[in-house]
Predict the structure.
Amino acid sequence: MISIIPQGEDQQELIELFPQREHLGTRLDKYVADELPELSRTYLQQLITDGSVLVDGLVRRPSFKVTPGEVVTVELPEVEETELLAEDIPLDVVYEDADILMINKPAGLVVHPAAGHSHGTLVNAVLYHAPEISIQGSTRPGIIHRLDKDTSGIMVIAKSDRAQTTLVEQWQARQVEKKYLALVTGVVEEDSATIDAPIGRSSANRQQMTTTRSGRDAVTHFIVVERFSDCTLLDVTIETGRTHQIRVHLAFIGHPVVADGLYGNKVSARVAERLDLHRQFLHAQSLSFAMPGSGEKRTFAAPLPADLQHVLDQLREESADANNGV
């Protein structure tokens, strides 16, 4: 259980945690990390060492074992606000009107400012391109969904409050159709399949997600497009939008995305090296949703970028040579 206690403008955020029966004997640092997965375990251990994490008002070591009935308070230091700056960063605009902006995001571009990425993000570029966009104190103005830094493809940005509300509602109701193209390691035998496995934060590596019974529901569908000697091209559709969902689910079934440095294995790394691919082969192909205002269902697509197209051309050439006995 978690309770956030409102503080004054100049005060730090105070969070109260209440260990339950299943937490009996759990280390304090692990318990707090599990309850606050958005914060790294290293950062939380430092807070405990600094005396910012108390158990029934007392400073405890990270190894202290919690007991049901105790109250754990976490005092988070005031976060230094980063001023959002408009930056003249080129955007590949697929479509634009008064409500939305459709972008073909390149690999390597971070979506919004965060720790270590205060500038040079898609948000900074959007503020320059569409200065009329409503910020309203948000550090992620117009952002409805995200793509990982090294995932390319179609994204929608809400320029108006009407679009923001309408699109968020569609995402929450799972009414948006999201299609991706992924090249995975190994030859997938099934022509199509559904992966239904909950996803949550990994307890072994806080930077990773993993399939776990205690995670949030996650559903991924795929259809085989082409099979090659050591990899398979998939059309992927997701019902949910969990962090790293496609990458986690495909690794879970033993076919990690080629060149995925976080969820890949030695085999996927060898395939990536052979193909001279330096980022995960994952591309958001299309988005289908009801347009703000008119309600008309539309689909927006982004073509495969040159680096991924080059890989496919190489694989198809290899297949043709093999079939011709070259």
The chain has three domains: 2-76, 80-173, 174-326. The domain at 80-173 is CATH 3.30.2350.10 (Pseudouridine synthase).
